[in-house]
Write a structure and sequence with these properties.
The chain is α+β, with helices and mostly antiparallel strands. It has 3 domains: about 170 residues, Reverse transcriptase/Diguanylate cyclase domain (Alpha-Beta Plaits, 2-Layer Sandwich), CATH 3.30.70.270; about 70 residues, 3-Layer(aba) Sandwich (MutS, DNA mismatch repair protein, domain I), CATH 3.40.1170.60; about 150 residues, 2-Layer Sandwich (Dna Ligase, domain 1), CATH 3.30.1490.100. The chain contains 13 helices and 12 strands. The strands form 3 sheets. A 5-stranded mixed sheet has the order 5-6-1-7-8. Helix 7 links the parallel strand 7 and strand 8. Helix 1 packs parallel to helix 10. The longest helix has 21 residues. The mean pLDDT is about 85.
């Protein structure tokens, strides 16, 4: 059983192979943007650098990002904004509505500055990336170079954690921020795992944390002392990979070309309850179009499409009820990244979910079964004309050059705003009419 667990968890494991021989001899750096959403907002508002700042979720509902000053005030992640305002009154932090267009644009600049080093790079999330470091230079020099260049080129401060595996790099990043208050840190000794709480480990959720604490596992050092058979049985292969990576065994190798998404979701809560099918179709069309751009951006096609339609669970009066079915999907025949095909499929599913007179609070689309376009099997029954790819490439290029929705589909017209964003900052980097203006004295 143990051999099966090793072969399942460790890439390249073979019979008779010593696990220690698979230990990573080079170093990985996890580059993590500090309070990324807040840093993006402060970049164009430097007077807010030492002021408590929070960023709110869609429709200005809950706090999803906090500056250090806001954290020190006792503001928790996920707390409703109206409660913060009621508690702090005029002393409440400066609040920004989420501006994902701005955050994605700045994320691309951060990743471009990291690529300029010429090392292996894996973009892990909008504000995190793994960088493979060469062994010729001391880690202190490389960490400082990464941190300095990103902040100098983009204005976004970052932290750097260095370890021999991705999980150890995550641990080093945690130690740098939480223990040593430093911009970068490299894990020097495995004994330092005793300083890391088990629930701070990468991939340890609340349920596993409770189960581990019941076994008196309080730190990362305690975790690596467990029986690997128990870890595999109780925490699946993902838990076993974490267990091995904390001991220097590579289970998550670098993917230098970045991680291809397995699915693409675009869903939003609405500012008000909506029961009009026409407006729901219009909003859904916009979400499908944006998801399709991301799909083509990674040169993939989707084999399945799903639609969310969720009613307001807090509203029961007036005959409104929770929807009996909130998600439905179907296969795309053939698989496609052609937006008109995706729009037709999405609207057909929306009509199946929709109930006349029902008010809905959330709507969205999910693209699944993604495969690279070049690897997709040819289907002679439904050949894809080259004109479709050329048209989509042209539309995406125009929108990228002239701004979001310079070209759009007629079914996107007429619904108005679907969300409330009273405190949204301008799209400083993506819209000509919202560029920063330098005032003349």
């Amino acid at each position: 059983m143990l051999f099966d667990a090793w072969s399942e968890a460790v890439p390249g494991f073979q019979p008779g192979l010593d696990l220690e021989s698979l230990a990573h001899r080079e170093r990985l750096a996890l580059v993590d943007c500090n309070q990324f959403y807040v840093s993006c907002e402060r970049l164009f508002r430097p007077e807010l650098r030492r002021v408590p700042v929070v960023v709110l979720s869609n429709n200005d509902g809950c706090v999803i990002a906090r500056s250090l000053e806001a954290r020190e005030m006792g503001i928790e992640m996920g707390v409703p904004w109206f409660q913060v305002r009621a508690r702090y009154g005029v002393h409440a932090p400066i609040a920004f509505s989420s501006n994902y267009t701005l955050y994605e644009a700045l994320s691309e600049r951060v990743m471009a500055s990291l690529r300029s080093f010429g090392h292996g790079l894996e973009v892990y999330s909008i504000d995190e990336a793994f960088v493979q470091l060469p062994s010729e230079q001391p880690w202190e020099i490389q960490a400082e170079a990464l941190s300095t260049r990103v902040e100098r080129w983009t204005g976004i401060p970052v932290g750097v954690g260095i370890g021999s595996t991705k999980s150890l790099a995550k641990v080093a990043s945690w130690l740098a921020k939480r223990r040593y208050k430093r911009p970068w840190y490299a894990l020097q000794d495995m004994a330092e795992l005793a300083e890391v709480p088990v629930d701070a480990l990468w991939g340890i959720g609340p349920r596993h944390a409770i189960r581990l604490r019941e076994r008196s596992v309080k730190s990362a050092a305690d975790f690596v002392q467990l029986d690997p058979v128990w870890v595999r049985k109780q925490m699946t292969v993902q838990g076993l990979r974490l267990y091995l990576e904390l001991q220097g065994i590579v289970c998550h190798p670098m993917q230098a070309n970045g991680r291809r998404r397995r699915q693409i979701r675009h869903a939003r809560s609405l500012a008000r309850d909506e029961s009009c099918l026409r407006r729901l179709k219009t909003w859904l069309a916009g979400f499908v179009a944006q998801a399709a751009v991301k799909l083509r951006g990674q040169d993939c096609i989707a084999g399945k499409l799903g639609v969310y339609l969720i009613s307001n669970r807090f509203r029961q009066e007036g005959g409104y009820e929770q929807s009996p079915q909130v998600f439905i999907n179907s296969r795309l025949e053939p698989a496609s990244s052609y937006t008109p095909d995706l729009l037709k499929a999405a609207h057909r599913l929306l009509e199946q979910l929709y109930r006349p007179g029902q008010a809905y609070k959330k709507i969205g689309v999910l693209l699944q079964d993604l495969v690279p376009r070049q690897e997709a099997s040819l289907n002679w029954l439904w050949p894809r004309p080259e004109s479709e790819r050329v048209l989509m490439t042209t539309v995406d290029a125009v929108n990228s050059s002239l701004g979001h929705q310079a070209l759009f589909y007629a079914c996107q017209l007429g619904a108005g705003r679907y969300s409330r964003q009273e405190n949204r900052s301008p799209h400083y980097l993506t819209r000509w009419d919202e560029l920063p203006v330098i005032a003349k004295r």
